[in-house]
């Protein structure tokens, strides 16, 4: 256990110094330390838990310390965050053990300080006052739910206090791993039955007819992974692919494809007959698409490295379906990417222009009567409805068949947006 906490502290330090993203640092640490299931689970809980509650934990440290939290060195701050997180959120760890094991990881010069902070938290009955909601709602939301003030401000502008709290609370719940069944090889019912026979905890997704929610088992260890019977894809993303309505024998273009799940879903819907062209700006990532397609026994996916904003004349009007899953702020997937909680919302202001440029180029590839699907994993209207409405205003040759925003508090999946746009024929 002590070793797991030491590994967790090392991972947190790497994430804080921007050396690695949390998922990459965590995967590396699990592999390097050859951790078993229980230790792997504790490590994951500690790392993601501390990252998700960082602003809350820092507020507690600042309230309990005579020094401003900014003046405490990063390694000590991460140690205190980890100790406080265990005391506040991990019922299975006794308080005395959490204090002892945290302090044991401190350097000689900080042991006394760490011990004092953790014991002060216990003396306060683990209750540190929040900022006043009425006086400063932004600070209240930021500390309570651990989001940057700029994100809190933006969500308040869009949703108001009550709905923002509902959304932030939903973002704080650990989402299940969602799988898409590879129906080229197996039905959802058969796959679930085989998984249950092997002791896996699975259930059907609420809306997607091919989705499975998996609890408590690493994906790569689950039955059917090596055989290519499923791949990881959130239900919202599955519904987006369903809306693309790709059919057998079609030509489909995915202009921002990596890591490839939407391309895979389209190819499966097409019964592995036709053509799926998967493009991405980063050519080195396309190996993920090729590798995934091979594991899933998909043969119709081809890859190409290209900037989705650059027009390719020979593709004009040649695709039945075009998918634009554009780069976005990610302000719908906080539950899976905790680092996004601390972004400055203002730094996302330039994204709508990039998104519109991609949409402007991609629309030229759609055949008359074909469909163009625009999607993001954010809840910001300037990246979603506003972009689609601006596009429609300047493109009378397209009509909107459907627009939908999925919300974690209502739909139980990622925050996600998609719009289905049809290129009209000359007779329409």
For this entry, give a set of tags.
428 residues; 7-stranded mixed sheet; alpha/beta
> What is the tally of beta strands?
11
Helix content: 40-55%
Q: Termini separation (Å)?
A: 67 Å
Q: Quickly count the helices.
A: 16
Q: Main sheet, how many strands, which sense, barrel?
A: 7 strands, mixed
By oligomeric state, this entry counts as single chain
Unreliable stretches (pLDDT < 50, length at least 5) are: none
Overview of this protein structure:
Helices cover 44% and strands 16% of the residues. It has helices at residues 2-16, 22-33, 37-52, 54-64, 74-89, 95-103, 111-123, 137-145, 149-171, 188-197, 235-244, 261-269, 286-295, 351-362, 385-394, 408-411; strands spanning 177-181, 201-204, 211-215, 230-232, 251-254, 275-280, 301-305, 319-325, 366-376, 398-406, 416-423. The strands form 2 sheets. Strands 7-6-5-8-9-11-10 form a 7-stranded mixed β-sheet, with helices on both faces. The chain has a 4-stranded antiparallel β-sheet with strand order 2-3-1-4, covered by helices on one side. Helix 1 (2-16) crosses helix 5 (74-89) and helix 8 crosses helix 9 (149-171). The N and C termini lie far apart (67 Å).
Task: Describe the secondary-structure layout.
Layout: H1 2-16, H2 22-33, H3 37-52, H4 54-64, H5 74-89, H6 95-103, H7 111-123, H8 137-145, H9 149-171, E1 177-181, H10 188-197, E2 201-204, E3 211-215, E4 230-232, H11 235-244, E5 251-254, H12 261-269, E6 275-280, H13 286-295, E7 301-305, E8 319-325, H14 351-362, E9 366-376, H15 385-394, E10 398-406, H16 408-411, E11 416-423
Parallel strand pairs: 5-6, 5-8, 6-7, 8-9
Antiparallel strand pairs: 1-3, 1-4, 2-3, 9-11, 10-11
């Amino acid at each position: 256990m002590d070793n797991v906490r030491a590994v967790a502290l090392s991972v947190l330090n790497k994430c804080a110094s921007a050396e690695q993203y949390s998922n990459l640092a965590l995967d590396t640490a699990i592999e390097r330390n050859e951790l078993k299931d229980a230790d792997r689970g504790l490590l994951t809980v500690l790392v993601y838990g501390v990252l998700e509650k960082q602003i809350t934990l820092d507020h507690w440290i600042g309230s309990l310390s005579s020094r401003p939290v900014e003046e405490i060195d990063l390694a000590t701050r991460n140690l205190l965050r980890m100790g406080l997180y265990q005391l506040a959120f991990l019922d299975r760890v006794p308080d005395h053990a959490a204090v002892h094991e945290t302090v044991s990881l401190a350097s000689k010069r900080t042991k006394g300080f760490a011990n004092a902070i953790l014991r002060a938290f216990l003396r306060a009955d683990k209750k540190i006052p929040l900022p006043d909601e009425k006086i400063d709602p932004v600070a209240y939301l930021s500390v309570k739910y651990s989001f940057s003030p700029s994100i809190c401000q933006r969500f308040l502008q869009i949703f108001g206090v009550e709905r923002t709290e509902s959304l932030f609370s939903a973002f704080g719940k650990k989402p299940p791993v969602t799988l898409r069944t590879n129906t080229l090889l197996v039905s959802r019912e058969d796959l679930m039955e085989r998984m249950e026979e092997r002791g896996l905890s699975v259930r059907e997704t609420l809306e997607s007819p091919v989705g499975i929610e998996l609890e408590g088992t690493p994906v790569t260890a689950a039955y059917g992974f090596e055989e290519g019977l499923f791949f990881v894809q959130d239900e919202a993303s599955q519904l987006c692919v369903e809306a693309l309505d790709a059919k057998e024998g079609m030509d489909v273009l995915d202009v921002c494809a990596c890591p490839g799940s939407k391309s895979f879903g389209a190819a499966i819907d097409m019964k592995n007959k036709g053509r799926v062209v998967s493009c991405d700006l980063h050519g080195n990532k396309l190996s993920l698409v090729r590798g995934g397609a091979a594991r899933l026994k998909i043969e119709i996916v081809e890859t190409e490295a290209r900037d989705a904003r650059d027009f390719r004349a020979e593709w004009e009007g040649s695709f039945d379906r075009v998918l634009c899953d554009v780069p976005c702020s990610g302000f719908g997937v906080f539950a899976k990417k905790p680092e996004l909680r601390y972004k400055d919302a203002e730094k996302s202001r330039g994204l709508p222009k990039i998104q519109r440029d991609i949409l402007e180029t991609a629309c030229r590839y759609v055949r008359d009567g074909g469909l163009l699907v625009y999607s993001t994993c954010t809840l910001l209207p300037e990246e979603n409805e506003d972009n689609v409405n601006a596009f429609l205003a300047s493109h009378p040759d397209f009509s909107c068949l459907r627009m939908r925003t999925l919300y974690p508090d209502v739909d139980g999946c990622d925050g996600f947006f998609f719009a289905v746009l049809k290129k009209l024929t000359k007779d329409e």
